[in-house]
UniProtKB/TrEMBL annotation:
Start and end residues of each stretch annotated as Disordered: 969-991
Biological processes annotated in GO: Actinobacterium-type cell wall biogenesis; cell wall organization
Record's protein name: Arabinosyltransferase
InterPro entries hit by this protein: Arabino_trans_C, Arabino_trans_central, Arabino_trans_N, EmbABC_dom1
GO cellular component, one term: plasma membrane
Domain of life of the source: Bacteria
């Protein structure tokens, strides 16, 4: 064994005689700590616990935003609240103002006729009709109030407890309960607004900041924690123990290989499905004043699982480019690899040679590549779980309490990242018996032990609610639970069903391989414990992996992406399992050898039956075997692998039976590969496929948009991502193709092309339109022919575009298939030699929603960075927010949202961004959406003009609207203070 390897073992175990793989580490004689340090550590632990309990209840600074509208010259004003209801609202009018209006809307907080595609909100509406004032709030009609003769004042008051209508200060209608109206604007039809006034206080319960007292509690708690650890360590110190091995920093060849692969993956690897979601949350941190969910859940804070978002926010202040924002996950990968290679692997395989070092690099990459690149929390959990395992193993080996306290601290901090971080406590559970043995021999009494052990994880509270109050966190949890979006623990099987789904990115080839193979490896590791392997660490790490899988039932969503939490531990278990079924380890063990090959035949075929598919921009260019499982020479590998594996096992059984029938030894034939060799080949192929396919695709399409071209552009000083490679069709009418002389059998009809009306036809009857001359860019196939379709067709009916040359003889016919009322663009490249195009219809009877189609056009394009220059404020929908780093996310300040001019959205057929504008999902921009009409502007990707990469929408207010300016003051409120509940339309009861 090398000198460096021996010192690596010393990280988690002291020097001892040659190890015996059949027993646990021999006890290390350690004198119990002196009584005084133990008592002092217990007192410090008590201080930590007291501070952790007091911290959520500590006061916070909450801004109060008051809006005052009305009086002479008041004009309709946008005021989209978030949450939708104010804390309290008062509306006042005079009878003279009501009578001057005659009939109509005296005051409203939501538009009466919003865009039909927007979901309306129930606001306040005060209408004058037949000499009476009719008031509706939150969808509830109050009793009509006849307007008395002469001067009078009508006042409407609503808060979380009651709603009252007063005439000259006397209540005439009173309703208990919460009937607060939603507020999107202050609107009126009154010609004279001098008698109108609207006053409200926005709900800013989440937009709090830390007070000096709350900060002081945290400082005292952290200092007490540090002092406690120091006192414990000094009390247990009897001789020096090296924390890291000598020359741990010296790179080795496997280190260089891992670093090189991670570097390639950093600049070319895929995005995760949530990178845009998290990018929007992180980048909005500055405008909201807290880490809130800017896409749903009423922008409720992510607390108590949000501290790493604050780190990402600080990181994004340097640059929001994709390559910069993905760097932390790569750095965390290098940290995890360092812990595995320097600490964990020597603990599990103390006699490992150089081959094991390369094999550990392979298992690490197999786990890390598909699950942990990007902004999601999985790499943080992976690092935390490995650190906790190292701490527990050190505590067991050295018989010391201090490493255990540090492991519990790391586990608590990891849990504060995401609910999946709960698995960081698994090493403590897996090593419970030797841990308890260590605690019994520590010399500390039961009470001091409890105090110091609880202090570590309790300190995570300082990260969980750093700027939130307890009441706000509980209300945010209630809102998330009410709206939903998660699944109960007993639906955990859905995660594995998704992993095995054939055509789903969650069951991609890269994601299946590490999970399925590590499940087999965990069985092999448990079987091999004590056979050439240290039994305690081997069993414990396998149990940690299995407990980690079990703890994932606590995560509210069941995405396969969460398997990345186990990337570090899983890589170690996979390594041990492979070594355990190697040729040397399985010598003369026939049954395990054949059982391993049989299991690998089945599992390997499941892996190879998957596709190499990834989310959004990462799957644009048809990665190797992306739409089909891997195949060679037209033959799928999955069934070949299964048949070949079963034939090998059957052949080996026949050879064994033949030899034993002749009185032979019954040894396995030499030509039979070991399960370790088969697993290594499969893992190598999976890793090479992933890295190679993205590197190849990035190089082949470097003139268009890939993550690799984005990284290269950023290095050249152009960090704006997809925006730099898109052009926008700002005016669809500008590109209508000229009609050639000739008749048209179909009458014209205007068609909505997404906020712009274009000439078109209703798809009814049988016939053709006139021919239209193709543009030169369409003849050269630089740009497509574009039509916009909507509606539906009955089975057997046809709508098609026909291309022809100068002689009018059709060259190609392309079917057009509308599939809904939302207008959809269809882009067609003209065949070679085509100079004209027309529409052909054969529809005998219209469907329930008759189809319509615009006349053909050529897109007239403007570079997107000219339409929306860098720094332009826009709503960045969550599927695309990550790849538009130069646009400024529309802010959500002080209990409101702005009314932006632009929205950048995913491709038309992706409706997942709709949650942001849906009140039932708590969409933050639902109120603002009711005030505008969307005008769609299609985008065109350089190098692939037929691809729908993203959409740009201009938000045009339904009527001219001014902006509201609040009067802001700050107040200190207790951590338990709340002002009623926020109400989710359709889910929370009214009243």
């Amino acid at each position: 064994m090398s000198r460096a390897g021996w010192h690596c073992v010393r990280v988690v175990s002291p020097a001892r005689p040659a190890p015996d793989a059949t027993r646990e580490d021999p006890p290390v004689p350690v004198a119990p700590p002196r009584r005084r340090p133990g008592v002092l550590a217990a007192l410090l632990g008590l201080v930590v616990l007291a501070c952790a309990v007091a911290f959520p209840f500590a006061p916070v600074v909450q801004p109060e935003a008051r809006y005052d509208w009305g009086g002479p010259g008041a004009v309709p004003t946008a005021l989209p609240l978030m949450p939708y209801q104010p804390v309290s609202l008062t509306a006042t009018t005079t009878c003279d103002a009501a009578r001057a209006l005659g009939e109509g809307t005296l005051l409203a907080t939501t538009p009466a006729a919003p865009d039909p595609r927007a979901t309306p909100l129930d606001g306040l509406r005060m209408e004058v009709a037949a000499g009476s004032l009719r008031v509706t709030t939150a969808g509830v009609d109050l009793d009509p109030l006849p307007l008395p003769a002469g001067g009078c004042t009508v006042e409407f008051r609503s808060d979380t407890t009651a709603t009252t209508l007063l005439l000259n200060g006397a209540p005439v209608v009173s309703r208990p309960g919460d009937l607060r109206p939603a507020v999107a604007a202050a609107l009126t039809d009154a010609p004279d607004t001098s008698g109108l006034r609207l006053q409200l206080t926005a709900d800013t319960r989440f937009q709090t900041s830390i007070t000096p007292l709350k900060a002081a509690i945290a400082v005292v708690g952290v200092l007490a924690l540090v002092a406690m650890v120091v006192v414990l360590a000094r009390g247990e110190r009897r001789r020096a123990v090296r924390v890291l091995p000598r020359r741990w920093w010296r790179p080795r060849l496997p280190d260089l290989a891992v670093t090189a692969v991670l570097a390639v993956w950093w600049v070319s690897g895929p995005v995760t499905v949530d990178d845009g979601y998290i990018a929007g949350i992180v980048r909005d941190r500055g405008s909201s004043g807290f880490v809130g969910n800017v896409y749903r859940w009423l922008n409720a804070p992510e607390a108590p699982f949000s501290w790493f978002y604050d780190l990402y926010h600080a990181w994004s202040q340097v640059s929001a480019s994709t390559v910069w924002m993905r760097l932390p996950s790569i750095l965390l990968g290098l940290v995890t690899w360092g812990l595995l290679s320097r600490c964990v692997v020597p603990r599990l395989l103390p006699r490992a040679g150089r081959g094991v070092a390369w094999l550990s690099a392979l298992t690490f990459l197999a786990w890390w590549l598909p699950y942990t690149l990007g902004l999601r929390p999985e790499p943080w959990v992976a690092v935390g779980t490995v650190l906790a395992f190292v701490g527990v193993e050190r505590a067991i080996t050295l018989r010391r309490v201090t490493p255990l306290v540090l492991a519990l601290l790391v586990a608590g901090v990891t849990t504060a990242v995401t609910p999946g971080g709960l698995m960081a406590f698994a090493p403590v559970v897996a090593g419970l018996v030797p841990v308890l043995r260590t605690l019994r021999r520590s010399g500390l009494g039961p009470v001091p032990l409890v105090l110091v052990l609880l202090a570590g994880p309790a300190a995570a509270v300082f990260l969980m609610v750093s700027d939130q109050s307890l009441a706000a966190m509980l209300e945010a949890t209630r809102v998330r639970t009410l709206i939903g979006g998660g699944q109960p623990w007993y639906d955990e099987y859905d995660r594995y069903a998704l992993l095995l789904t054939q055509d789903d990115m969650q069951g991609s080839l890269g994601k299946r391989a590490p999970v399925l193979l590590t499940l087999l490896a965990a069985v092999a590791a448990l079987w091999a414990a004590g056979r050439r392997f240290p039994p305690g660490p081997t069993r414990r790490i396998a149990v940690v992996f299995l407990l980690g899988l079990a703890s994932m039932t606590a995560t509210p969503t069941k995405w396969t992406q969460h398997f990345g939490d186990l990337a570090g531990i899983g890589a170690a278990v996979l390594l041990v399992g492979i070594v355990a079924v190697g040729r040397r380890a399985l010598a003369r063990r026939t049954a395990p050898w054949l059982a391993g090959l049989g299991a690998l035949a089945v599992v390997g075929s499941l892996v190879l039956a998957a596709q190499n598919v990834w989310p959004f921009v990462s799957d644009w260019w048809g990665l190797t075997w992306s739409t089909l499982p891997p195949f060679v020479a037209g033959v799928e590998l999955a069934p070949v692998w299964l048949v070949a594996g079963l034939v090998l096992v059957a052949g080996a059984l026949l050879v064994l039976a033949w030899r034993r029938s002749g009185g032979g030894t019954g040894r396995l034939p030499r030509w039979l590969p070991s399960p370790a060799a088969v697993t290594t080949v499969l893992l190598t192929a999976v890793v090479l496929l992933q890295v190679g396919s993205f590197a190849r695709t990035g190089w082949q399409h470097r003139d268009s948009y890939t993550l690799l071209s984005d990284a290269v552009s950023t290095a050249r000083g152009a960090p704006c991502g997809l925006q730099e490679r898109l052009s926008v069709e700002t005016d669809p009418a500008a590109g209508l193709l000229p009609a050639l002389p000739g008749p048209s059998a179909l009458p014209p009809e205007p068609v909505d092309a997404g906020g712009t009306e274009l000439p078109g036809i209703r798809v009814l009857g049988t016939g053709d339109t006139a021919w239209f001359a193709l543009d030169t860019t369409q003849r050269s196939r630089e740009l497509p022919v574009v039509v916009t379709v909507a509606g539906a067709l009955r089975p057997g009916d046809t709508l098609a575009a026909e291309f022809a040359g100068d002689d009018g003889e059709p060259l190609e016919r392309a079917a057009l298939k509308p599939d809904g009322q939302v207008p959809q663009d269809v882009r067609l490249l003209a065949p070679d030699g085509a100079t004209r195009v027309r529409l052909a219809v054969d529809v005998r009877e219209p469907a329930d929603t008759p189809a319509v189609v615009t006349l053909p056009r050529v897109p007239r394009l403007t570079p997107m960075d000219e339409v929306l220059p860098a720094g332009t404020e826009a709503i960045l929908d969550w599927p695309v927010a990550f790849v538009f780093p130069c646009l400024t996310p529309a802010p959500l300040p002080l209990g409101t949202t702005v009314l932006p001019q632009w929205r950048v959205a995913p491709p038309q057929r992706d409706d997942s961004a709709g949650i942001t504008y849906a009140p039932s999902y708590g969409g933050p921009f639902a109120a603002a959406r009711t005030l505008v009409i969307e005008q769609r502007m299609a985008t065109y990707l350089a190098g692939d003009p037929t691809r729908d990469a993203a959409q740009v929408y201009r938000w045009v207010p339904v009527r001219p609207l001014a902006s509201a300016t609040p009067q802001v003051s700050e107040h200190t409120v207790g951590g338990w203070t709340h002002t009623g509940r926020t109400r989710v339309p359709g889910l929370d009861p009214v009243g």
